[in-house]
Write a structure and sequence with these properties.
There is one protein chain. The chain folds into 4 domains: 175 residues, 2-Layer Sandwich (Beta-Lactamase); 158 residues, 2-Layer Sandwich (Beta-Lactamase), CATH 3.30.450; 140 residues, no CATH class; 127 residues, Beta Barrel (Elongation Factor Tu (Ef-tu), domain 3). The protein contains 15 helices and 27 strands. A 7-stranded antiparallel beta sheet has the order 24-23-27-13-22-26-25. A 5-stranded antiparallel beta sheet has the order 2-1-7-6-3. Helix 1 packs antiparallel against helix 2 and helix 5 packs antiparallel against helix 8. 27% of the residues are buried.
Length: 702
């Protein structure tokens, strides 16, 4: 549609018009062919705009594309600087407003030079064409939406009647640009669809396993295809060290190889640093010295031209101060000119890999996972948590009942006792009396010998008996002396015989009374110097075992049956005197296999209150159990009778390690014991008291 060199010519030959038509059709065909090709936008619009300007002999032009935010962005221009818009700020603002309105109206327009095109919005400049050229504008419409704008500056010297033809040409070219834009968007969508398909498959695979090694290999191998690099490696932090779990293309990671060792050290330093490392051939001076050292060592072993190390820290552990759980490392030995897209794909892969690796490592850290996983499957098979709990409780009760019925368990009878020497005696008063004193220096633990006077006592009745005997002896002796004088004075033989007979009778009485007095002295250990006082003597060589006898006995009137002191030989054998409750004695006696054998023994577990953290062993013989039950006189809180028994704590059958040490043998030390009465059903051994109570109170009542 060009008018040639003379724009004011009124007639054009038919031949010239035909040539112009062929040229325009050829331009349309060329642009249509360009629209079908897979060209980058910059290359397409360069060829496209050049042909548009050639078709109408325009001096300048521009292609504006709309961004996703709705703004116009210059895609390509020819000779736009010659228009002078850059140096005219008000004119540039008016031109921008002109473009904005053209996008909004989505209609072609012809704007004369140095003219406005309506009024602007409040606070905005009016749309205008500040240049000396006529502006031809046509929108690039894709699916009824303005995707861009084709703007052509035409020489104003052209015939005004030719401007509509020029505009029609620009509109047709804009329509062809719309076709290219639509094709480009379609190709981009197809490419994005492929990427999204790959990314979806990657996400499905990487989240499909909870094994850290499997997840690492998926990230390494599948991630390398998505990122389009040469090698991807994955490191996982276990405790305080990183371990290289997977390297793309390698079935097995040789952890002893120098490359893997240097890669692990580099991952350690990056994780400690906590930032991403990007190496494109030059090192950043701001890197920490430890990172630089590890990077230099690794690059000396590897020939990577592009190296990116990205720590993968899940948002669930972002609040903690612990380093990242995993690290991904990509390498390229011949990287493309622009690596931003590769790094962007790494970020996408890293976001999916972060959560997958975190989940797998957390799953691996679960203790006793081999127990919980089958339990989870059982719970799911039973139909939910509530049913699983009910089933578990039911199974547990059944198992507990079966165990209580069929599993044997030792039956143990409790009893309390005290430590005592085997060789011991109790001291009793021979006759009733009042305690008057003790032997000098006599204290608890004093060493005594057999026959040693220990306790001085006084008895009024004894005193009266002794005084009566003494009086009778003295009276009989006086009569003997008097009869002796009478015998000497008697003259008659008959009198002498009679007096001699009486004297002999009185002398016999005196002797008999004297023997009776000596027998009483010997029997009561009476003090010959103090009438009515007598001593209680030690029956053997040993030690005073009673602790508070002075406080208990001083000035106390005691009967002959009351115990005064206990004396024992602590250097000889010891035993434990047990008080077995009568409710337990039946179980103890039934535990003996041969009741007629007095030497048969039961094992006894012993616990001394003086050392409550150690258990010792003892033996209870059948013959060492008393044959009667007595009231528990030493325990005012327990009225139930007890049966005395004596437990052997050393000798055959008791390992030396389980014997009571000599240093713990202290008279009167309280001992808690458990007498082993053989194996019974576990339920009975543990709850025999409950069974006996129910039998006594319920079953026996019926």
């Amino acid at each position: 549609m060009s008018t040639g060199s003379d724009p004011h010519a009124s007639q054009v030959s038919e031949q010239t018009i035909e040539q112009i038509r062929r040229q325009i059709n050829r331009l349309f065909e060329e642009v249509s062919h360009l629209c079908e090709q897979d060209l980058k936008p910059a290359n397409f619009y360069a060829e496209f705009l050049q042909r548009v300007l050639t078709g109408i002999a325009a001096p300048a032009g521009a292609v504006w594309l709309r961004t996703t935010q709705g703004n116009l962005q210059l895609q390509y221009q020819i000779n736009m600087r010659q228009l002078g818009l850059e140096n005219d700020e008000p004119g540039r603002q008016g031109h921008d407003e002109l473009l904005r309105q053209a996008i909004q109206t989505a209609k072609p327009a012809i704007v004369p030079p140095h003219s406005g095109n309506g009024t602007g919005e409040p606070g905005q400049p009016a749309p205008s064409n500040p240049t000396a050229f006529t502006v031809l504008m046509a929108p690039i419409v894709v699916d009824k939406a303005v995707a861009g704008l084709l703007e052509i500056w035409q020489d104003p010297r052209h015939n005004p009647d030719a401007l509509p033809g020029f505009l029609q040409f620009v509109i047709r070219m804009a329509n062809l640009a719309s076709v290219y834009t639509r094709n480009s968007q379609l190709r981009q969508m197809v490419g994005q669809q492929q990427v999204w398909t790959q990314l979806e498959a990657f996400a499905r695979q990487v989240h499909g396993s909870l094994n850290p090694t499997e997840v690492s290999y998926i990230v390494a191998n599948e991630g390398r295809r998505l990122i389009e690099c040469d090698r991807v490696s994955v490191a996982i932090r276990l405790a305080q060290k990183n371990h290289i779990e997977a390297i793309s293309g390698a079935d097995v990671v040789e952890k002893r190889s120098n490359l893997v060792q240097l890669m692990r050290k580099l991952a350690d330093e990056i994780v400690n640093w906590g930032e991403r490392l990007v190496y494109t051939g030059t090192k950043d001076d701001s890197l920490p010295p430890a990172v630089v050292s590890a990077l230099d060592a690794y690059l000396a072993e590897s020939s990577s031209k592009l190296l990116v190390v990205l720590p993968l820290k899940d948002e669930r552990e972002s609040e903690g101060k612990r380093p990242a759980r995993a690290t991904i490392l990509i390498e390229s030995f011949d990287p493309p000119p622009g690596v931003d897209q590769m790094i962007a794909r790494l970020e996408v892969v890293g976001r999916h890999a972060t959560s997958a690796l975190y989940n797998s490592v957390e799953h691996k850290r679960i203790p006793f996972r081999w127990i919980w996983m089958p339990l989870a499957k059982v719970q799911e098979g039973l139909g939910g948590k509530t049913r699983a709990i009910m089933a578990g409780v039911g199974v547990g009760l059944v198992l507990a009942i079966l165990i209580l019925i069929f599993v044997p368990y030792p039956l143990k009878m409790d009893a309390k006792g005290q430590l005592l020497p085997v060789e011991r005696r109790q001291l009793y008063s021979i006759v009733e009396g009042q305690v008057a004193g003790f032997a000098s220096g006599l204290q608890p633990g004093s060493q005594v010998y057999e026959g040693q006077p220990l306790i001085l006592m006084h008895d009024v009745k004894l005193e009266m008996k002794l005084r009566d005997l003494r009086s009778e002896i003295e009276g009989a002796e006086k009569e003997v002396r008097a009869l002796g004088l009478q015998y000497n004075e008697a003259q008659n033989l008959g009198d002498k015989i009679k007096i001699s007979s009486e004297k002999e009778q009185k002398q016999a009485l005196a002797n008999r009374k004297r023997e009776e007095l000596e027998a009483m002295y010997d029997r009561t250990n009476a003090d010959r110097n103090r009438v009515g006082f007598f001593w209680v003597k030690s029956p053997l060589n040993g030690t005073v075992l009673s602790a508070d006898f002075r406080e208990q006995l001083t000035n106390r009137y005691v009967k002959a049956s009351e115990q005064l002191l206990r004396v024992g030989d602590k250097d000889q054998a010891w035993e434990i005197e047990l008080k077995i409750p009568q409710k337990h004695i039946g179980q103890v006696l039934q535990a003996y296999k041969d009741p007629a054998n007095p030497d048969e023994e039961l094992d006894v577990d012993l616990l001394l209150l003086s050392e409550p953290t150690q258990t010792y062993k003892g033996k209870l013989a059948r013959g060492k159990i008393a044959g009667e039950a007595n009231p528990n006189r030493d325990d005012n809180n327990e009225s139930e009778p007890v049966v005395l028994a004596w437990v052997r704590i050393d000798g055959p059958g008791i390992p030396e390690a389980d014997q009571l040490p000599r240093k713990l043998l202290l008279t009167g030390t309280e001992v808690h014991s458990k007498i082993r009465c053989g194996n019974h059903r576990m339920g009975y051994s543990l709850f025999y008291g409950v069974w006996e109570f129910l039998y006594e109170k319920v079953v026996f009542w019926f």
